[in-house]
């Protein structure tokens, strides 16, 4: 009887020991599993953050490249426009020099043949080009000489007085400015209008008349037609020299 109780007690003790071990093991496994899951979640979250950060960096990089490219294109466009303005202004200053020579010749003589001296006009224009470091084709220079002579003749036809010169200089200055505006449109990298449309004679004449609205002088239709023709001719010549046309 006593031996039987001892056996039962041993079995109970063994069962209790096994139960305690099982519970401890379960707790350990549970804690370990929790740590594993927690670590996995943290790593997953970190990966997601890295992916998001990577996408942000990627987008920023693309935007940076696009922004830099746009700035370069804008700089290039301004550079082209600056070059076109330089060419136009050089020819205009050359014309002013020829006008000083022309008026001096008129005052010294009766004016006969003064506007016909093509060689002198070309020499003056080429001197101005050399001074400013400008290179243009012989075709453009020859045509510019003819345009200059045409302006001289317009002045001479009205009488070479200070009032006539002052009045005509207003429209010649307008001619140069509108030539530069038209040149910008023709040389624009992203232009949507064809060169043919930009250089349409009627459109150019309409712009001239609109700008003349703020000038306190009147000009006849023949002079306006001549100004439009010279603008188109000069823009065409320079566009060919600069490989735009």
Topology diagram in text:
Blueprint: H1 2-108, H2 118-132, H3 138-158, H4 162-187, H5 195-198, H6 201-212, H7 221-241
Description:
The protein has 245 residues and is mainly alpha-helical. It has a domain at 82-241: Gametocyte protein Pfg27. It has helices at 2-108, 118-132, 138-158, 162-187, 195-198, 201-212, 221-241. Residues 22-34 have low confidence and may be disordered.
Name the descriptors.
245 residues, mainly alpha, Gametocyte protein Pfg27, 84% helix, Gap, signal, Pfg27_sf
Structural class: mainly alpha
Briefly note the CATH topology name of the domain at 82-241: Gametocyte protein Pfg27
Number of E-state strands: 0
Mean pLDDT: 78
How are helices and strands ordered from N to C?
A: HHHHHHH
Report the biggest beta sheet as strand number plus sense, adding barrel if it closes: none
Give the C-level CATH assignment of the domain at 82-241.
Mainly Alpha
Q: What share of the residues does DSSP label as strand, in percent?
A: under 5%
Poorly predicted regions? 22-34
CATH homologous superfamily identity of the domain at 82-241: Gametocyte protein Pfg27
| CA gyration radius, whole angstroms | 43 Å
Number of helices: 7
Write the CATH architecture name of the domain at 82-241. Orthogonal Bundle
Question: What is the share of helical residues?
Answer: over 70%
Q: Globular, elongated, flat, extended or rod-shaped: what is the shape?
A: globular
